Fold this sequence. Notes:
By secondary structure, this protein is of the alpha/beta class. 49% of the residues lie in helices and 18% in strands. It has a single domain (5-223), classed as Rossmann fold, CATH 3.40.50. The protein binds cytidine-5'-diphosphate. Cytidine-5'-diphosphate (CDP) is lined by residues 12-13, 34-35, 38-39, 103-104, 107, 133-136, 184, 188.
Amino acid sequence: MKNIVVAIDGFSSCGKSTMAKWLAKEVGYKYIDSGAMYRAVTLFCLRNNLIKDGVVDTEKLEKRMNEVKIEFRVNENTGKSDTYLNGECVESEIRGMEVSSNVSPVAAVPFVRHAMVDLQRSYGEGGGIVMDGRDIGTTVFPNAELKLYVVASAEVRAQRRYDELTAKGDTVSFDDILKNVQERDYIDMNRAESPLRKADDAIELDNGLLTIEEQNKWLMQIFNEKTK
Ligand code: CDP
């Protein structure tokens, strides 16, 4: 069986990461959450006053990019991979609304993208990887053997994110989340540097109506065809 690269792109909160994590576990591949990397850079910006009202101080950030060290380490208790920023586990903090509200402007900065893409490619050497994000099939791994492009309506996605955050005990408003999802979609699709778009050879999946089981079955079938 071939060791392939699986690239899963799509809008925010459309179930990419659930899909990607499940597939990676099932087939024994590495899973990399590229969004977590942009989220970690955003947390660095917030902590160091490098972003204000959605505007990034690119001059200062560029000088300090060498201070941003991002890693993934497996959590012994959960078995899941956690995101570390300069040696500190930031997994929970990067998922909160403050980071979500600031991440898309940070992810639009070209030198931030170049640094993250280099890191993402280094993880993908030798294949055997599932990576999810916005530009994985178009920019990071244009030769990926399996590319998926996942879509779902903004309302379905906001509801999922709302359920996820309230289950964790966060107090959030559905309307704020919907607004955030729509704003991020807009910035992600309209930025100059590798905007979110479907790669020509990606398979599109509208998962708004699929259950997780249906989605997984479909995914495994395609994966088996590609690795034959
Ligand atoms: O969790 P959610 O699906 O909402 O987003 P994410 O995958 O954690 O990504 C957070 C943000 O990072 C996105 O809204 C994009 O602005 C940016 N991103 C990107 O530009 N390129 C990627 N490959 C992954 C994420």
